[in-house]
């Protein structure tokens, strides 16, 4: 970070925890509260870095969603929606176990979208080199349909804002274990937007898309890049695929800004997927994105949250590491020297009594104690082949 330059910003409002479907839903926003608390107890999140999100306007939502869908979301946000809208909920994907409508969902999701747009404004205007909005990353929502725990697609809205307000070429990087389908389809014919998603293959996992042959259409052919990895993929293979494809993609596409989505559900402990990565990847991926942002787009980088369903042992550490990298915290040097560096005891004391499992007490995982994956070599070879296919037609 340049001395004297404004530092990275952390977009946050406690109200964002109200983006919540019900008490038993796996999308649990306690993870956001826990992450902010971990960063504060680590001395890594000063109040001077915090910025409040604003709400997205209807026009900003209409860049990526249909008028009919937005009307349905608003109507189903009432505490007791009219029967005719309840009947329409199926058509708009808002009556599933994954994405059920809930009271107030339009207002709170508009704030989530506004947070990601705020991040883009701060970075594109030069007021901050980087911006992190962990409340965002709702990448599955489609133009006229909610899906995969996502009502509005803030990632797509942020990309559309960067493109339409600033004329920016945007590289979208999705590290969630689930394919970033909503964003991909939203810009599938747009040569100004390149989408890169690394994820568990859709043969076994929601949303079932993200094959290597989904490459974009028309003038945008070659600007949709997918790296679908095998179940039980581990750190080395995941990072080999991610690093090579991202480094080559950005050199070809040469964007004005990177917008990245940081779901942390490729971790071995995540209950909703089958990839077997450790906390190491959640330090290494943002480190590479950070480096490439400075190399190719004057440092312009907006990062968003995303999936992550082991809210106790995984999400707070992974998302905190993202901010530690983005804001170049001194604790990273300590981690290099001491891989089993302990988490702040005050944070462990605050949350252990609430957790149904034993909290991890170090920043990184003791992977040397993990049972080895029997098919490691075969999985790595298959992923290497997939990686080569994914890069065949890069623009």
What are its keywords?
395 residues; alpha/beta; Arginase, Chain A; 8-stranded parallel beta sheet; 13 helices; 8 strands
Low-confidence stretches: none
How would you sum up the global shape?
Answer: globular
What is the CATH domain class?
Alpha Beta
Q: Under CATH, the topology is which? A: Arginase, Chain A
As a percent range, the share of strand residues is 5-15%
| Tally of individual helices | 13
Q: Give the strand line-up of the largest sheet.
A: 2-1-3-8-7-4-5-6
State the order of secondary-structure elements, H for helix, E for strand: EHEHHHHEHEHEEHEHEHHHH
How many individual β-strands? Answer: 8
Biggest beta-sheet profile: 8 strands, parallel
What is the average per-residue confidence, as pLDDT, rounded to a whole number? 96
* Corresponding CATH architecture: 3-Layer(aba) Sandwich
Cα gyration radius (Å)? 20 Å
Overall structural class, as computed from helix and strand content, comes to: alpha/beta
Count of discrete structural domains = 1
Distance between the termini: 30 Å
CATH 4th-level superfamily: Histone deacetylase domain
Share of helix, binned: 25-40%
Q: How does this structure look, described?
A:
β7 (257-261), α9 (281-296) and β8 (301-304) form a beta-alpha-beta unit. It is built from 13 helices and 8 strands. The chain is 37% helix and 9% strand. The two termini are 30 Å apart. An 8-stranded parallel beta sheet has the order 2-1-3-8-7-4-5-6, with helices on both faces. The mean pLDDT is 96. The chain has 395 residues and is an alpha/beta fold. The protein has helices spanning 30-41, 58-62, 67-76, 83-88, 105-124, 154-166, 181-186, 235-253, 281-296, 315-326, 331-337, 345-351, 376-390; strands spanning 9-11, 50-51, 130-133, 170-174, 193-200, 224-229, 257-261, 301-304. The protein has one domain (9-54, 110-390): 3-Layer(aba) Sandwich (Arginase, Chain A).
